[in-house]
Amino acid sequence: MASPPVGTPDPHAPSAALAEAASLLENRPEAALAQAEAILKRAPGLPPAEFLACQALRKLGKPAAALPRLTALVRSQPRVPAILWELAQAASEAGQTRDAIAALENLTKNQPAVANGWFLLAKELRKAGRAEDAWRADLSGVHASSRDPELLKAAVAMNEDRLDDSAPLLEARLHRLPNDPAGCRLLGEVNWRRGDMTEAMTWVERALELAPGFDLARDFLVRLLLQNNRLTEALEHAETLGMSPVKSPGHDLIKASVLVRLGHQEEAEQLYQHLLAQNPDQPQVWQNLGHVLKTLGKQAEAVHAYRQAVTYKPSMGEAWWSLANLKTVKLGPDDMATMKQALSDLELETETRQEDIFHLHFSLGKALEDAKDYPASFHHYDQGNRLRRTMILHDADDFSAEAADAARTFSAAFIARMGMGGCPTPDPIFIVGLPRSGSTLVEQILASHSQVEGTMELPEMMMIAGRLQSRLDEGEFADFQTLIASLTPADRLRLGEEYIERTRVHRRTDKPLFIDKMPNNWQHVGLIRLILPNAKIIDARRHPLSCCFSGWKQHFARGQTFSYDLADIGRYYRDYVDLMTAYDAAAPGAVHRVVYEDMVTDTERQVRSLLDYVGVSFEQACLEFYKNDRAVRTASSEQVRQPIFTDGIEQWKNYARWLGPLVKALGPSLSSNTLESAID
């Protein structure tokens, strides 16, 4: 007569003794083994006792002794998942990979919803050199996990923004099941939504350690690495993702995003072209391709790509804005009619399509400005800015306070007390100021010099400064000056070297100098001089009304949260001028100022002065900067491919009647003559 399966009561079995032996298994496996063997003497071959003995042997570090007994059990009990699972674990621990794979293939065939079986199978397949099969096993494990009730409950809580409900569920689960890849990834996302990037990265990386074929976890990790500007690592993971046996266009898209951030525009273009050759009906891919082509200076091709995007999706606001933002393209009546119809169609989707709506308003503002219908143009710019302002956080009072703290801190006396220190390399050239101040023009002029490499707007200095600011925010220091004063020469050297090392990935040539054109670095000129004392700092400045109005009617892809309200941007400009004035007084000559209007009207003289400050000889190519075909990613990418022109200097005057809030906010940053002309 056949023995009952494991776990099935047997009226002839010593059930009490079995229960007692099982209770000893976790903490006293040697006692559990002794009791199981005693039961087997009284009831030879009893499956539950035999199974318990094998479990105890494995826990005692004797998996090889358990293997033949488990193999015999499987022959008599071929459909009992617990026995197959135990056999697989014993074989794995005994180094019997082939036996482990056989057991796990049997288990997953009969119990495909058991995620752990798939994940252990993947591990054993990797040991056997069957990488692709292992990857597929991991993916099957992820699929099985997607139906786990406990994980589903945690995911629902997370998606409903009940993070304090979701996190404890996952933490308790991972305490019980520490090797659960799906639980690790989900807890990583919960931490990311909480704003804890360090914990998020730790858990997602753990998920990939456990299941290297977990594509969704790797995709998420790439995005986290991008957010942390760890671009080289992001590319490595994106390339790994591209080798997945389950092909997805999303893998190419995420890799292209990394390539763009690294400045590898040509490679990103190839990926987008490949995706569109397979399926042209992809407006998002057309738009992304347009961005790359614009950066590469292929304007006609960029226009075609953006046109394709809005053909496939007429309400795609960002594609319309990308067309309008080329500056050298004018959108005609048919375009305006299409955009207005799109806005009308989106009225019922205001909550879900806000980005399309504000992009369409900005686009119509530009089209109507080109048509010289300034009242209608201002209306759409205003609508776009008002909507965008509701979607971002910017506290003008807090920002002004931080700028004032920096201005007070970096006095001449403080700079003298801090003394020498920092990384002495002269490589970086920082171009600072406000967006739309002519900084891209200055960059293009310098990048046309044989000794200077243009990169892009690099976030590294902002990240270093942000990390220091977080120490102040967390109460480690009483105030900003105390924080900065705490930086020892060794600290300053380390931070300067960190900046140089982290920006190295953006340097593609052996030119000795490189440009960092992050405009917001004006907030950190004092810190720059402390940690990189030989770096050059260039302040690109433009007429306040011209600069602020141009920034207000420009939608930026990211950052610049101050720019969506006329009063906010005016106040930001005033904070900028005040801090730079204070620093000029504290460290005369440390910062070189380039006034956009002077560069336009007296180009050669300004260029020579700029090159003298940087410490390089004059080269004619710097006057012919528009011939430079380097990639340019900013809003002025097309303008700097042409000789200098004066058309944009006084565009703000067409809108002067509506600029009262800006004029008031700028206050003393405007001269009396400028103020009168603005009001008139």
TrEMBL record:
SUPFAM superfamilies per record: P-loop containing nucleoside triphosphate hydrolases, TPR-like
Mapped TPR repeat ranges: 283-316
Keywords noted in UniProt: TPR repeat, Transferase
Highest taxon listed in the record's lineage: Bacteria
Stored Pfam families: Sulfotransfer_3 (PF13469), TPR_15 (PF13429)
Sequence intervals crossing the membrane: none
PANTHER family per UniProt: PROTEIN-TYROSINE SULFOTRANSFERASE, PROTEIN-TYROSINE SULFOTRANSFERASE 2
Identification of the protein by name: Sulfotransferase
Organism (species): Novosphingobium indicum
